[in-house]
Write a structure and sequence with these properties.
The complex is a heterodimer of chains A (680) and B (58).
Chain A lengths: L2 H24 L8 H26 L9 H4 L11 H12 L3 H9 L4 H28 L6 H8 L2 H30 L3 H24 L4 H24 L1 H6 L4 H17 L3 H29 L23 H8 L9 H5 L13 H24 L3 H8 L2 H4 L3 H10 L6 H10 L12 H15 L5 H38 L9 H24 L5 H29 L7 H23 L7 H9 L8 H38 L15 H6 L1
Chain B lengths: L1 H17 L2 H10 L6 H16 L6
Classes of the chains: A mainly alpha (680), B mainly alpha (58).
């Protein structure tokens, strides 16, 4: 293709992208078609990948096609395996795409579709993709070392310790929030609970098939499991309509929370691969398939967005979570824009699979673009709902009122008309008793997804599609839960092993039990806090999770900036420094507001103070006050720790730039790759 | 047509990697084993320790 033609094509892509963004941002009045969001995203991602990631690859990181990667040097067919770049891309994407890019955008839609969409696009192209790309490359150049090790070696001991603390904290809060999302999606829903319960015998059956009948044929087994799960969804309707059996599966939020806690503990302590491994495969299978189906559904249906670009809640009075667009939209949507958790994957399994150094661009930057597209699809799924319906599902009873009449009157009073009859009809259509106060994002996303599927992919059975969506979300959230509990347990054992050696032995059962109990107890406490919270829990816990996640991204970007400066490329440091500044502004402002804001719906301490001084304190006020103070303390400790790593990094940057300290990167020495010779 | 076939092959290879089928094949090759129930049990045991330490993203 000639240079002129290429130039013309890219000019057209840029013009189409700019036009789509202008339409999304400036359009008022009539409902906008969701395809504008898809077009804008596609063009921006294409331009970001073609030009910005190339600039980073060539000028900043100077990717070296001649340099051997750890996958080549330590190739052992197990952890280190030189792998086709598209295969690594798929593998990495499957690891980074979790519930975050689905739930965050749904919650942030309370501001309208515009703030979330713009943040997802800009945050991914300029922040999230850059973080994933540079951390992946730096890990590849350090034999696949973890973020914690890189922080320790490149910044100093505080860096390593803070990274460790941030990872543990984010895991605890993430697992608590994820469990709460599942509880809120399944409470009082016999159909959903039955379907998820059925995944246990299905997984056991898959385990037997996989081990005894067709050893190692995981794909085949996953397809079989998927068919059985679909049958369980259909059977769930019968169960929900049968008064006696239906009552077994109609559980309250506390009962579900206890079951999930027991599940988490068992998954971490009992060697139950026969259950967990097939469930994990099944969940990945359903996750990838559903994301692909959602993309097809949106393209086929190209629905109009009912949500306005901006709602009245940009003033900070939102019912789902309180606080203004800045900073709260930017911590509510982490995965999909920039997520610190990704730096763990980019410095975990993936660097050990990279065949050629130049492929880190596709895998690191490209996979994050794909995840960002998932977040755009989640925004669309939430915004196709009538705003009144969206707020009725997502608003807690403590804000809108406990009865359907009270809730609909409050929401209609905000200018988003909805009636109790509309909500009852919708609940009937999806096979639920009620859809009021289903906080957490998952039910709203499921209704949006069911709407898209039932109108585009055939069939008008909303109920089946709704429960398919609930099953899909709950299933893979539960696998995040069991994997996270195990990883957290190992991290605790590693740390405690420094205090007393036997604790570090991962096979020593007292240590396994103690650390598992510690981990489950920690996230279980946050889960219980959310279940008992009259405002639904998500209001306080999701921002806390967002702050932790973005603080971890701050640590990752500190490591990246330090290495870039040490490489003698300080002039290019703004590539990571600008997203770092932005995240510092966002997380520090959000933390300050969450701790000290005078609005009791935002500030933990003000809320605690209000409860303590109430003339007639609500039931369980002492517990609520303790929870507020605990949340404030967790936020404060994290922010102080990240402040320390920022100071330590800034001092180091100054010393390196001024020449008072030798700039020494801890890279593995150059070894020539044999793959380059093979290609000649 | 050739490119489509290649794309399908890579897609399948990706699924095999994600679902550990490729890893199992490598295990069988490195240990000179045939695929049997006991070989798969040995693979799971070998694979589980490494896999259990991998976080899943939010």
């Amino acid at each position: 293709m000639s240079k002129v033609l290429r130039g013309l094509i890219w000019t057209a892509v840029i013009l189409i992208g700019v036009s789509a963004i202008a339409i999304i941002a400036l359009h008022r009045g009539e409902k906008i078609n969701a395809l504008w969001l898809v077009v804008a995203a596609g063009c921006i991602y294409a331009v970001g990948y073609r030009f910005y990631s190339r600039f980073i690859a060539v000028r900043v990181l100077a990717l070296d096609a001649q340099r051997a990667t750890p996958a080549e040097r330590f190739s052992n067919g197990r952890d280190y395996v030189p792998t086709n770049k598209w295969v690594v891309f798929g593998h990495h994407f499957a690891a980074i795409a979790g519930p975050g890019p689905l739930v965050g955008p749904v919650l942030a839609a309370q501001f309208g579709y515009l703030p979330g969409t713009l943040w997802i696009l800009a945050g991914a192209v300029l922040g999230g993709c850059v973080q994933d790309f540079v951390i992946l490359l730096f890990s590849v150049r350090r034999d696949g070392k973890s973020l914690t090790k890189m922080a320790h070696e490149e910044i100093g001991p505080i860096g390593g310790f803070v990274a460790y603390l941030a990872i543990i904290s984010i895991m605890v809060i993430l697992l608590g929030v994820c469990a709460l999302v599942v509880v809120n999606a399944l409470k009082g829903s016999p159909w959903g609970t039955f379907t998820i319960a059925m995944t246990i015998p299905i997984a056991l059956l898959m385990g037997v098939y996989l081990r005894r009948i067709r050893p190692g044929k995981v794909l085949e087994t996953s397809i079989l499991g998927f068919v059985l799960v679909m049958l369980a969804i259909v059977g769930g309707q019968w169960v929900s309509q049968n008064p006696s059996i239906g009552s077994w599966f109609t559980l309250t939020a506390p009962a579900l929370a206890i079951i999930i806690l027991i599940y988490g503990f068992a998954a971490s302590t009992v060697p139950v691969w026969l259950l967990l491994a097939p469930r994990d495969y099944l969940s990945t299978f359903v996750k990838l398939g559903t994301i692909a189906m959602l993309a097809v559904g949106i393209l086929v249906m190209h629905p109009r967005l009912s949500m306005p670009p901006l709602t009245r809640f940009i003033d900070g009075t939102g019912p789902i979570f309180a606080g203004k667009i800045f900073p709260f939209a930017f911590i509510t949507i982490a995965c999909g824009a920039i997520s610190g958790f990704h730096s763990l994957i980019s410095s975990g399994t993936t660097p050990k699979l990279i065949r050629r150094e130049v492929e880190t661009r596709l895998v690191g930057y490209g996979s994050m673009l794909a995840e960002s597209m998932v977040a755009i699809m989640a925004t669309i799924a939430a915004c196709v709902l009538q705003p009144g319906t969206y707020f009725a599902i997502n608003s807690p009873a403590g804000i809108v009122g406990a009865t359907p009449e009270a809730a609909t009157a409050t929401i209609s009073g905000w200018g988003f008309p909805v009636t109790a009859a509309d909500m009852h009809a919708l609940a009937q259509a999806v096979g639920e008793q009620t859809l009021f106060n289903r906080t957490g994002g998952a039910p709203a996303f499921a209704v949006g997804m069911a709407h898209i599927f039932s109108h585009s992919l055939g069939g008008t059975v909303m109920a089946i599609w709704y429960h398919f969506a609930i099953m899909f979300e709950a299933l893979f959230i539960l696998t995040v839960l069991d994997a996270g509990t195990r990883v957290g347990r190992f991290m605790l054992q590693d740390a405690l092993g420094h205090v007393w050696k036997p604790f570090g032995q991962t096979s020593w059962y007292p240590s396994v039990l103690a650390t598992s109990a510690l981990m489950v107890g920690a996230w279980g406490y946050f889960l219980w806090q959310g279940v008992k919270d009259p405002l639904g829990g998500i209001n306080s816990l999701w921002p806390l999770f967002g702050i932790c996640n973005q603080l971890l991204a701050t640590v990752a970007l500190c490591v990246a900036t330090t290495i870039i400066i040490k490489m003698g490329k300080a002039r290019f440091a703004p590539v990571t420094l600008l997203p770092l500044f932005w995240l510092v502004a966002v997380t520090f402002t959000a933390s300050w507001q969450k701790i000290f804001d005078s609005n009791p719906r935002i500030g933990f301490l003000t809320h605690a103070h209000q409860l303590a001084n109430a003339a007639t304190p609500p039931v369980g006020a002492a517990r609520l006050i303790f929870n507020d103070r605990l949340d404030a303390t967790v936020t404060a400790v994290l922010i102080v720790m990240v402040g320390l790593i920022l100071i330590e990094s800034a001092i180091l940057w100054w010393k390196v730039i001024s020449g008072s300290t030798e700039a020494r990167v801890c890279e593995t020495p150059f070894v020539a790759t044999r793959f380059a010779l093979e290609e000649k | 047509m050739i490119q489509l076939r290649r794309a399908c092959a890579i897609f399948l290879e990706t699924l095999r990697e994600i679902f550990d089928e490729a890893s199992y094949t490598r295990f069988l090759e490195s240990h000179n084993l045939q695929s049997t129930a006991s070989a798969y049990a040995a693979f799971r045991q070998d694979n589980e320790a490494a896999k259990a330490r991998r976080p899943k993203c939010c």
